[in-house]
Every structure is written in C-alpha cells, then in structure tokens.
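INFO batch 0412 | record 1 of 1 | parsing
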Amino acid sequence: MKQMDYYFTVLSPWAYLAGSRLEDIASRHGAQITYKPLDIGQLFGRTGGTPPKDRHPSRMEYRMQELKRWSKALDMPMNHIPAHWPTNGAPASYAIIAAQSVGGGDMGALVHRIMRACWAGEKDIAEDAVIKSCLSDAGFDPSLADSGLLAGAETYGRNLEDAVAAGVFGSPFYICDDGERFWGQDRLDALDTHLSAKP
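INFO prediction complete | emitting tokens
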C-alpha cells in the first residue's frame, strides 16, 4: 500500500482549502495517509519561514487576494479574516493525534471539520467544546480531547522534528513514501499525477 505523510497546521487557510481532495486522491490510489499536525511557528523558525504577522504588507495583500480567488474557485465558504485567528492550535492538534491513534472514525472529516470551524464557522478551535463537537461529528469519542493530551503533546513535538528532517517548510505539505514532496493545496493535482505513474 502506498503511504503519504501529511504535515499541516490546523491554523492554515491553505490546508483548509485543500478540503477533502487529499482523501479523495488517497482513496483512488489505495494510499494511506498519516496525519502529522505541527507547530507552524516553530517550523518557520527552523526552516527560514516568516510568520504572517511579520510579513511585508505587499505580501499580505497578495495573500488575501489569493485566498479570495481560491475560495471562490473551489466554491468553499471562507471568512478570510476569521474572528478567532490566530489561536492556539495545539489542543485541536492533540485531538487529531489521539483520534488517529485510537481509530474508529473518519480522520479526513475530523481534520476538515476543525479547520472549517475556524475558517468558515467563526469558532475558536482552541476551545474544548468546539474540538469535542468536531470529534463527535467525525465519529470519534469526544473524550479524546481530554484523554490524549500527554501523548498528543509528545507526538506534536515529534512531528515537528520529523518535518524538519523530511524537508517540510510550510502547510499543507505532502510527502510520498518514495520521497517526492508537494507543498500547497495547489499541488494536489501534481500529487495525483505522481501517484498515477507506473513504477
């Protein structure tokens, strides 16, 4: 079975705009996804990136134009300046890690629900009630938001180290088991094409 590592931050508008396309691609190619949420601020600090708050105004203006263009092109509802962004992405990331470890629900749905809560639902994804609702909606036990904290924190930190070692520098970032890397939701078609190629 083909394997893909999916590195992302739950705070990324670009990961939100990926929607369920990664899961659709994986399903078509019989590939398995390992979800690896991480701290994007620390990743930027380790790999030469600049947090949005520190970017030049012209870059931020262009970013906004791109967000509007892509959300319209993909027909995805989006508040481009959400009420609760930035926020603490760690609790939601811990819940994703715990859910992946336990299994039994729909991981793609969970990840997308959390990001949609931020970018379209005007909810604070650092709040327990929001996280638990997303877990429940995706078929997971909502108590994972409470029980997976320690293991989640350890894996969250390890995901960052794995990302740096693997050459990840942004979100969303997809790595195939043959080492091919794809950065950004706008590279999902290229990922699909790559997985379609005969060995």
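INFO post-check: Residues 2-196 form a domain with the Glutaredoxin fold (CATH 3.40.30.10).
INFO record closed
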